[in-house]
Amino acid sequence: QVNLVQSGAEMKKPGAAVKVSCKASGYTFTLNAIHWVRHAPGQRLEWMGWINPGNGHTKLSETFQGRVTITRDTSARTVYMQLSSLTSEDTAIYYCARVGHVDTNMVGSFDNWGQGTLVTVSS
Amino acid sequence: DIVMTQSPDSLAVSLGERATINCKSSQTSFFYSSNIENYLAWYQQKPGQPPKLLIYWASIRESGVPDRFSGSGSGTDFTLTISSLQAEDVAVYYCQQYYSSRTFGQGTKVEIK
After folding, report:
1. C-beta atoms of B98 and A108 within 8 A
2. Residue A104 and residue B100: Cα distance in Å, rounded?
3. Which of A72, A101, B32, B71 has the fewest Cβ atoms within 10 angstroms?
4. What is the pLDDT of residue B1?
């Protein structure tokens, strides 16, 4: 079965960067896009960007103004999300999610999610 | 950007009764349409868990989801219906559009009355 396992909780100081991993199993890694979504306290779910694991192409949310980078290691079946210049406003649970049920343009909903990674930013 | 607005923010329903959640899309720019066709999904989230896909393409139930959950609508107005609320349905429910980028509704908390 499809499984996405994320790295553990992180505590960072303001100005630092964090890198969260998402290891996929149970399907052909290169065939499904992986997106990143975060959920800050009291806020709605917020989309951050996505990667095509097959070719490494990414599309990132303008909200993060170049602070977010998404990469993948196909041999490790793992996608990474790095967020830099952290502030307290970046304290949130970060999720990776796989796209499924796609249309002819490979657009679809998130059919499987990682368990979430809590990132806390505090001085 | 496409903004998704759910109503109500919370609702309390008796066991066995119907729960209905609405979701409406709107655009922040005058020049773009709010119509997201059927690029709409519904998710259920319980405390300490990631969101779980319930409905995709506005009305298709994900495999393994009980048939008391149903989705309807197209264009700008969508509905998630739980036909007979069970105790295990207590959760927060989110709509999400995937027509243009990805945006989520603010969530609707469903409780037992």
Report:
1. yes
2. 15
3. B32
4. 85
Longest dimension (CA), chain B: 45
Count chain A–chain B contacts defined by CB atoms under 8 A: 53
Interface list for chain B against chain A, based on CB atoms closer than 8 Å = 39, 41, 43, 50-53, 56-57, 60, 62, 94, 96, 98, 101-107
Whether the bond between B8 and the residue before it is cis, its omega within 30 degrees of 0, is yes
Residue of A24, A27, A22 whose CA lies nearest to A7: A22
Q: Test A37 with B52 for CB contact under 8 angstroms.
A: no
Residue in the block written with tokens 């990414």: A58
Coil, strand, or helix at residue B68? coil
pLDDT tens digit sequence for A67-123? 999 999 999 999 999 999 999 999 999 999 999 888 888 889 999 999 999 999 999
The closest alpha carbon to B20, from B76, B64, B84, belongs to B84
Question: Which residues face B78 on adjacent strands?
Answer: B23, B73
